[in-house]
């Protein structure tokens, strides 16, 4: 039986004459999971109290990118550089994380997904990378999405290091970054400027990365391996 991978969905508008709201996820996530022999299932943003039932129906949970996390969830007031937030999405996904842990279902967080996992377990964020300090690394790349533009160092004793080389490189589309890593989590990849590019839980099946393997997986096999590890091993 192929594992069922719940993908926490997003919402956006589409205008075709009238304007409609869409519940959706990126096909890149869908294809990454399918190529790893998993069955993707999109979970639209909904009521937090329904998270338990959704998690019962899936084997693992993927949290994708998009909105900034509401800074109030990690004890900060909104900074002028904060971008769009979605409180309904935060509330629903936080309950999905909570239920996944209660029900022993693994979690893979990508970009916002990593930042939300960190906040869910008591970590904090910089609302903009400029608040981290000066850096010579371009974390919002302008080259094509399937290009890997900055190096990362993968921590030797980590889940990532079981299938990625310690000297690796990634694409980069994030204007926020982790400040304090959540208790009982470890930073498992860093950019040369010290920005945290991956974390994992010490005692729970949770791994999370700042970059976007869904955009590079068809070009770089190691990027597909992130999905394969999640679907088959985590
Ligand atoms: Mn980066």
From TrEMBL:
Residues making up the signal peptide according to the UniProt record: none
CDD domains: GATase1_2
Molecular-function GO term, any one: gamma-glutamyl-gamma-aminobutyrate hydrolase activity
PROSITE patterns assigned: GATASE_TYPE_1 (PS51273)
SUPFAM superfamilies listed in its UniProt record: Class I glutamine amidotransferase-like (SSF52317)
Pfam families reported for this sequence: Peptidase_C26
Annotated GO biological process: polyamine catabolic process
One annotated Gene Ontology cellular component of this protein: cytosol
InterPro entries, per the entry: Class_I_gatase-like (IPR029062), Peptidase_C26 (IPR011697), PuuD-like (IPR044668)
Protein's name according to its UniProt entry: Uncharacterized protein
Organism: Enterococcus saccharolyticus subsp. saccharolyticus ATCC 43076
């Amino acid at each position: 039986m192929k594992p069922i991978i719940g993908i926490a969905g997003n919402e956006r508008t589409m205008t075709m004459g009238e304007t409609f709201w869409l519940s959706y996820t990126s096909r890149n996530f869908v294809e990454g999971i399918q190529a790893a022999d998993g069955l993707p299932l999109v979970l639209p943003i909904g009521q937090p109290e329904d998270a338990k039932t959704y998690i019962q129906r899936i084997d693992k949970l993927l949290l994708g990118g998009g909105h900034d996390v509401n800074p109030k969830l990690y004890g900060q007031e909104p900074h002028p550089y904060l971008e769009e937030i979605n409180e309904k999405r935060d509330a629903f996904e936080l309950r999905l994380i909570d239920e996944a842990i209660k029900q022993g279902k693994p979690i893979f967080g990508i970009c916002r997904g990593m930042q939300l996992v960190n906040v869910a377990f008591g970590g904090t964020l910089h609302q903009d990378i400029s608040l981290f300090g000066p850096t010579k690394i371009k974390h919002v790349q302008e080259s094509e999405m399937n290009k890997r533009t900055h190096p990362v160092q993968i921590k030797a004793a980590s889940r990532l290091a079981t299938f990625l080389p310690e000297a690796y490189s990634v694409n980069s589309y994030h204007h926020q970054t982790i400040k304090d890593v959540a208790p009982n989590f470890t930073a498992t990849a860093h950019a040369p400027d010290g920005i945290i590019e991956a974390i994992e839980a010490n005692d729970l099946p949770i791994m999370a990365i700042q970059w976007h393997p869904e955009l590079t997986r068809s070009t770089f096999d190691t990027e597909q391996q992130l999905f394969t590890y999640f679907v088959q091993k985590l």
